[in-house]
């Protein structure tokens, strides 16, 4: 099986218990480690794929927690178009907007606060992955993170099954699955 991972990292696949024959990772960031012979990495925007990638076909498009970071409705549409064009099968996961804990900052209800309050929380919250270096960085990080709900996923992936990943019985993530 050949897999294209939009927004992922090779490290995810080196740690996987089962690995496809070939993995092509496309990310705005460069590789953070050596690239094994069964993988390739390209610098690219999943919403506007370079022609040499867009022309290829894969067995599966995989994307884990990326669509909420592509930058607004129009870019989410372009992302979904890329997913549909690259393969007949896909697995696209995103955190669920209405889960009570915002997963990027691990802050209860943060996604429901006004922008100013989210930025203030992003600058001070002790459980976040990376602390913003400045207020401007915090604004950018908060604006760059737009959690999706079921209706948005259904709109982006109309022919997919939308699966729900649950934690303690509550919907935690949505996964668009096709094929």
Automatic annotation (TrEMBL):
One GO process term, biological-process aspect: methylation
Lineage top rank: taxon: Bacteria
Keywords: Methyltransferase, Transferase
Cross-referenced InterPro entries: SAM-dependent_MTases_sf (IPR029063)
MF-aspect GO terms: methyltransferase activity
Name of protein: Class I SAM-dependent methyltransferase
């Amino acid at each position: 099986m050949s897999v294209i991972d939009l927004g992922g990292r090779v490290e995810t696949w080196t740690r996987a218990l089962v690995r496809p024959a070939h993995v092509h990772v496309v990310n705005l960031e460069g590789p953070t480690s050596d690239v094994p012979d069964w993988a390739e990495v390209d610098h690219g925007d999943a919403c506007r794929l370079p022609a040499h990638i867009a022309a290829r076909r894969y067995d599966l498009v995989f994307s884990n927690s990326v669509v909420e970071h592509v930058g607004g409705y129009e870019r989410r549409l372009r992302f979904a178009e890329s997913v549909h064009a690259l393969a007949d099968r896909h697995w696209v996961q995103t955190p669920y907007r209405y889960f009570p804990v915002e997963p990027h900052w691990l802050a209860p209800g943060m996604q429901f606060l006004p922008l100013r309050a989210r930025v203030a929380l992003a600058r001070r919250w002790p459980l976040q992955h990376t602390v913003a270096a400045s207020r401007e960085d915090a604004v950018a990080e908060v604006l760059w993170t737009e959690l999706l709900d079921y209706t948005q996923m259904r709109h982006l992936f109309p022919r997919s099954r939308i699966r729900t990943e649950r934690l303690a019985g509550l919907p935690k993530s949505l996964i668009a699955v096709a094929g």
